[in-house]
Amino acid sequence: MWLEQNHCGKVFARQGKLVIRQDGKHTMFRDKGRRPIILVVDDTPENIDVLKGALIDDYTVRPAPNGQIALKAAMVPPHPDLVLLDIMMPGMDGYEVCNRLKQNKLTCDIPVIFVTAKAEEADEIMGLKLGAVDYITKPFSIPIVQARIKTHLELRFATRTLKKNNQNLLYERELIENIITKMRGADVLDERYLRHIIAPVEQTAGDMLLSTFTPEGRQLVLLGDFTGHGLPAAIGGPLVTYILHEQARMESPGLAILEQINSQLFSRLPTGLFFAALLLEISAQRHQAKIWNAAIPEALLLRQGQIVNRFPSMLPPLGVTMSLDMGEAQATLDLEKDDRLYLYSDGITEARGLHNDMFGVERLEKFLTDLAASGAPLENLLKRLEAYTGSDTQDDDITLVEVRI
Fold first, then answer.
1. Both 292 and 152 in a single domain?
2. CATH number for the domain harbouring residue 141
3. Could you tell me if 117 and 198 lie in one domain?
């Protein structure tokens, strides 16, 4: 039985086939209760009789005495699972039949095996170029024909199954990505005192940026980068988001928040997935800040357009071990009005140019000092990277954050 979905979205039964609605199209797969159909095309009745006699026990055989009838027979549902095709026929030869089958979207994936008296190498090359999967010369051996049919049918059905499974995986991946994206976007980024750009490689980026304020007015900014990018890299994002916002609501200090994130990631993430993170905690009066850097590129403090302090990584990525002395890794800094703090991910400095050299820290710092002096848009960095790499695509997520004091 086949199941089919009509234009109203109703599912109804139809004999002999299985139709699965996917992205507005019907995709057909072999019904396990149906024998494979072999279309045998030959203008010599004796050849058809020999092949039919050899195949009838295992397959349903459709005979066709010429090319025109073969094309019509191929369009009758259920479509053939394989075609045995002679080349030398009156009117339309086998090459033309094969070419038309391959140009039709309903029959293009049906494997074609030429069975012909044309034994020259050039003839076989021509047949294979047209899309045939095999070439058997006459006089043929019945066991050889049977073996090759069996092989190509198994490949066809395996390919169909793989395609169906891939479609299911893509659908499930898209569903999970949408769920994760919504979960990560559930808490609105508090953009007070912030400018930022985030350019992910995929929808579910490995980079993440969070900013929130505690009830007493402390600002917490977290820049994170899960290993890699895509779905595995994004899967821990909702957990980190929840911890930061919940702990901020409870007025937890930055050190305790980072320890909680590390503890939860260590206990919940699979081995090999870890989280580089930089947490910035700014006092309510905005005259002092604390920074913890765990495997993120060094943060920069700019004052009057000049770099006056750097805050390199002092910790390994989070989620690797519970034995982290985060108190020792804390950096404390005094702030002045109009200071700028810049946080960024390594997708910027590791972008490779036309000669395979990296954009690097020096070019980024030159861009940031010019930026702090001019107040130009952060998006200019993407233009600078595109000019440097010669491409509007990227290999890693790109995040740049400016925190104003």
1. no
2. 3.40.50.2300
3. no
154 and 216 belong to one structural domain = no
Q: What is the pLDDT along the chain (405 residues), one digit of tens a residue?
A: 333 333 333 333 333 333 333 343 333 344 556 899 999 999 999 999 999 999 999 999 999 999 999 999 999 999 999 999 999 999 999 999 999 999 999 999 999 999 999 999 999 999 999 999 999 999 999 999 999 999 999 999 999 899 899 988 888 777 776 666 665 554 568 999 999 998 876 655 568 899 999 999 999 999 998 885 556 656 778 889 889 999 999 999 999 999 999 999 998 887 778 899 999 999 999 999 999 999 999 999 999 989 999 999 999 999 999 888 999 999 999 999 999 999 999 989 999 988 889 999 999 999 999 998 888 999 999 999 999 988 877 777 899 999 999
pTM of the predicted model, to two decimals? 0.61
Q: Do 104 and 218 have their domain in common?
A: no
Could you write out the three-class secondary structure of the chain? Answer: CEEEECCCCCEEEECCCEEEEECCEEEEECCCCCCCEEEEECCCHHHHHHHHHHHCCCCEEEEECCHHHHHHHHCCCCCCCEEEECCCCCCCCHHHHHHHHHHCCCCCCCCEEEEECCCCHHHHHHHHHCCCCEEEECCCCHHHHHHHHHHHHHHHHHHHHHHHHHHHHHHHHHHHHHHHHHHHCCCCCCCCCEEEEEECCCCCCCEEEEEEECCCCCEEEEEEEECCCCHHHHCCHHHHHHHHHHHHHCCCCHHHHHHHHHHHHHHHCCCCCCEEEEEEEECCCCCEEEEEEECCCCEEEEECCEEEEEECCCECCECCCCCCCCCCCCEEEECCCCCEEEEECHHHHCCECCCCCECHHHHHHHHHHHHHHHCCCCCHHHHHHHHHHCCCCCCCCEEEEEEEC
